[in-house]
Amino acid sequence: MERAMEQLNVQLNRLTRSLRRARTVELPEDNETAVYTLMPMVMADQHRSVSELLLNSKFDVNYAFGRVKRSLLHIAANCGSVECLVLLLKRGANPNYQDISGCTPLHLAARNGQKKCMGKLLEYNADVNICNNEGLTAIHWLAVNGRTELLHDLVQHVSNVDVEDAMGQTALHVACQNGHKTVSLLENI
After folding, report:
1. Which DSSP state fits 30?
2. Which parts of the chain are ANK repeats (predicted)?
Protein backbone atom coordinates (compact mmCIF):
# COMPACT_ATOMS: atom_id res chain seq x y z
CA MET A 1 0.00 0.00 0.00
CA GLU A 2 2.79 2.39 0.95
CA ARG A 3 4.67 1.58 -2.26
CA ALA A 4 1.54 2.17 -4.33
CA MET A 5 1.00 5.57 -2.67
CA GLU A 6 4.62 6.52 -3.42
CA GLN A 7 4.12 5.61 -7.07
CA LEU A 8 0.89 7.62 -7.22
CA ASN A 9 2.65 10.62 -5.66
CA VAL A 10 5.48 10.40 -8.21
CA GLN A 11 2.94 10.26 -11.04
CA LEU A 12 0.96 13.14 -9.55
CA ASN A 13 4.08 15.28 -9.20
CA ARG A 14 5.07 14.58 -12.81
CA LEU A 15 1.64 15.54 -14.08
CA THR A 16 1.55 18.69 -11.96
CA ARG A 17 5.03 19.77 -13.12
CA SER A 18 4.16 19.22 -16.77
CA LEU A 19 0.93 21.19 -16.39
CA ARG A 20 2.88 24.04 -14.84
CA ARG A 21 5.28 24.01 -17.79
CA ALA A 22 2.23 24.34 -20.06
CA ARG A 23 2.92 21.08 -21.81
CA THR A 24 -0.11 19.23 -23.00
CA VAL A 25 -0.91 16.33 -20.73
CA GLU A 26 -3.73 13.98 -21.54
CA LEU A 27 -5.47 11.36 -19.52
CA PRO A 28 -5.03 7.77 -20.58
CA GLU A 29 -7.79 6.60 -22.92
CA ASP A 30 -9.19 3.89 -20.67
CA ASN A 31 -11.23 4.89 -17.62
CA GLU A 32 -9.51 2.38 -15.32
CA THR A 33 -6.07 3.93 -15.82
CA ALA A 34 -7.43 7.48 -15.95
CA VAL A 35 -9.27 7.17 -12.64
CA TYR A 36 -6.08 6.14 -10.83
CA THR A 37 -4.31 9.12 -12.40
CA LEU A 38 -7.05 11.49 -11.21
CA MET A 39 -7.68 9.99 -7.76
CA PRO A 40 -4.65 11.45 -5.92
CA MET A 41 -5.40 14.87 -7.42
CA VAL A 42 -9.00 14.66 -6.26
CA MET A 43 -7.85 13.57 -2.79
CA ALA A 44 -5.54 16.60 -2.65
CA ASP A 45 -8.31 18.86 -4.06
CA GLN A 46 -6.11 19.92 -6.98
CA HIS A 47 -9.13 21.03 -8.98
CA ARG A 48 -7.14 23.02 -11.54
CA SER A 49 -5.09 19.97 -12.49
CA VAL A 50 -8.19 17.79 -12.57
CA SER A 51 -10.02 20.38 -14.67
CA GLU A 52 -7.14 20.59 -17.17
CA LEU A 53 -7.00 16.82 -17.53
CA LEU A 54 -10.76 16.46 -17.93
CA LEU A 55 -11.03 19.32 -20.41
CA ASN A 56 -10.37 17.35 -23.59
CA SER A 57 -10.82 13.83 -22.30
CA LYS A 58 -13.62 11.35 -22.76
CA PHE A 59 -13.36 10.22 -19.14
CA ASP A 60 -16.67 9.10 -17.65
CA VAL A 61 -17.02 11.06 -14.39
CA ASN A 62 -19.43 8.39 -13.14
CA TYR A 63 -16.93 5.58 -13.67
CA ALA A 64 -17.02 3.27 -10.64
CA PHE A 65 -13.75 1.61 -9.72
CA GLY A 66 -12.10 -0.57 -7.15
CA ARG A 67 -13.51 -3.29 -4.95
CA VAL A 68 -16.35 -1.12 -3.62
CA LYS A 69 -17.18 0.50 -6.97
CA ARG A 70 -16.93 4.13 -5.90
CA SER A 71 -16.73 7.11 -8.22
CA LEU A 72 -14.37 10.07 -7.99
CA LEU A 73 -17.31 11.99 -6.52
CA HIS A 74 -17.32 9.53 -3.60
CA ILE A 75 -13.59 10.15 -3.14
CA ALA A 76 -14.00 13.94 -3.21
CA ALA A 77 -16.90 13.81 -0.71
CA ASN A 78 -15.01 11.45 1.58
CA CYS A 79 -11.87 13.63 1.61
CA GLY A 80 -13.62 17.00 1.75
CA SER A 81 -12.26 18.05 -1.65
CA VAL A 82 -14.94 20.67 -2.27
CA GLU A 83 -13.53 22.25 -5.43
CA CYS A 84 -13.05 18.87 -7.13
CA LEU A 85 -16.49 17.78 -5.96
CA VAL A 86 -18.09 20.84 -7.59
CA LEU A 87 -16.05 20.33 -10.76
CA LEU A 88 -17.21 16.70 -11.01
CA LEU A 89 -20.83 17.68 -10.35
CA LYS A 90 -20.66 20.35 -13.06
CA ARG A 91 -19.33 17.71 -15.46
CA GLY A 92 -22.35 15.50 -14.75
CA ALA A 93 -21.30 13.28 -11.85
CA ASN A 94 -24.33 11.58 -10.28
CA PRO A 95 -24.72 12.76 -6.64
CA ASN A 96 -26.95 9.75 -5.89
CA TYR A 97 -24.72 7.00 -7.29
CA GLN A 98 -24.48 4.15 -4.77
CA ASP A 99 -21.34 2.08 -4.33
CA ILE A 100 -21.43 -1.67 -3.72
CA SER A 101 -22.46 -1.10 -0.07
CA GLY A 102 -25.20 1.33 -1.10
CA CYS A 103 -23.36 4.45 0.10
CA THR A 104 -23.73 7.68 -1.83
CA PRO A 105 -21.24 10.56 -1.79
CA LEU A 106 -23.59 12.25 0.72
CA HIS A 107 -23.29 9.27 3.09
CA LEU A 108 -19.50 9.59 3.01
CA ALA A 109 -19.53 13.36 3.45
CA ALA A 110 -21.92 13.00 6.41
CA ARG A 111 -19.91 10.17 7.96
CA ASN A 112 -16.77 12.33 7.87
CA GLY A 113 -18.38 15.65 8.78
CA GLN A 114 -17.62 17.31 5.44
CA LYS A 115 -20.10 20.18 5.78
CA LYS A 116 -19.15 22.06 2.60
CA CYS A 117 -19.32 18.89 0.52
CA MET A 118 -22.71 18.06 2.03
CA GLY A 119 -23.98 21.52 1.11
CA LYS A 120 -22.75 21.28 -2.48
CA LEU A 121 -24.20 17.78 -2.90
CA LEU A 122 -27.56 19.06 -1.67
CA GLU A 123 -27.36 21.95 -4.18
CA TYR A 124 -27.00 19.32 -6.90
CA ASN A 125 -30.03 17.37 -5.64
CA ALA A 126 -28.39 14.65 -3.59
CA ASP A 127 -31.16 12.57 -2.03
CA VAL A 128 -30.92 12.63 1.77
CA ASN A 129 -33.43 9.78 2.05
CA ILE A 130 -31.35 7.11 0.29
CA CYS A 131 -30.49 4.17 2.54
CA ASN A 132 -27.36 2.09 2.14
CA ASN A 133 -27.42 -1.73 2.28
CA GLU A 134 -27.63 -1.59 6.09
CA GLY A 135 -30.53 0.86 5.98
CA LEU A 136 -28.41 3.82 7.10
CA THR A 137 -29.18 7.30 5.79
CA ALA A 138 -26.91 10.33 5.92
CA ILE A 139 -28.78 11.34 9.11
CA HIS A 140 -27.81 8.01 10.69
CA TRP A 141 -24.15 8.67 9.85
CA LEU A 142 -24.29 12.09 11.49
CA ALA A 143 -25.91 10.56 14.59
CA VAL A 144 -23.41 7.69 14.76
CA ASN A 145 -20.47 10.09 14.74
CA GLY A 146 -22.00 12.81 16.90
CA ARG A 147 -21.92 15.45 14.18
CA THR A 148 -24.63 17.49 15.88
CA GLU A 149 -23.58 20.74 14.24
CA LEU A 150 -24.44 19.30 10.82
CA LEU A 151 -27.78 17.69 11.62
CA HIS A 152 -29.80 20.82 10.98
CA ASP A 153 -28.36 21.09 7.46
CA LEU A 154 -29.79 17.70 6.48
CA VAL A 155 -32.93 17.38 8.59
CA GLN A 156 -34.77 20.01 6.55
CA HIS A 157 -34.38 17.74 3.48
CA VAL A 158 -35.41 14.46 5.13
CA SER A 159 -38.86 13.03 4.46
CA ASN A 160 -38.81 10.82 7.59
CA VAL A 161 -36.33 11.45 10.40
CA ASP A 162 -37.54 8.27 12.12
CA VAL A 163 -36.54 5.89 9.32
CA GLU A 164 -35.14 2.66 10.75
CA ASP A 165 -31.98 0.93 9.59
CA ALA A 166 -31.72 -2.84 9.03
CA MET A 167 -31.45 -3.35 12.81
CA GLY A 168 -34.61 -1.33 13.50
CA GLN A 169 -32.63 1.66 14.81
CA THR A 170 -33.55 5.26 14.07
CA ALA A 171 -30.96 8.04 14.09
CA LEU A 172 -32.17 8.91 17.60
CA HIS A 173 -31.51 5.34 18.79
CA VAL A 174 -28.06 5.37 17.24
CA ALA A 175 -27.23 8.72 18.84
CA CYS A 176 -28.33 7.47 22.26
CA GLN A 177 -26.31 4.27 21.93
CA ASN A 178 -23.21 6.28 21.09
CA GLY A 179 -23.76 8.80 23.90
CA HIS A 180 -24.05 11.87 21.69
CA LYS A 181 -25.94 15.05 22.47
CA THR A 182 -27.51 14.64 19.05
CA VAL A 183 -30.41 13.19 21.00
CA SER A 184 -31.81 16.57 21.99
CA LEU A 185 -31.64 17.85 18.41
CA LEU A 186 -33.42 14.78 17.06
CA GLU A 187 -36.06 14.87 19.79
CA ASN A 188 -36.90 18.48 18.94
CA ILE A 189 -37.52 17.81 15.26
Report:
1. S
2. 68-100, 101-133, 134-166
Pick 1-127's CATH classification: 1.25.40.20, 3.40.50.620, 1.20.1290.10, 3.40.50.10330: 1.25.40.20
Asked whether 63 and 37 are in contact (CB, 8 A), the reply is no
Distance CA 2, CA 96 (A): 31
Which residues of the chain form CATH 1.25.40.20?
1-127, 128-189
Name the architecture of domain 128-189. Alpha Horseshoe (1.25)
**Cα gap 9→104, rounded to integer Å:** 27
Q: Is the pLDDT of residue 180 over 90?
A: no
CA atoms lying within 13 Å on the CB side of residue 163: 21
Rounded to 5 degrees, φ, ψ at 31 are: -60, -35
pLDDT tens-place string over residues 49-60: 999 899 889 999
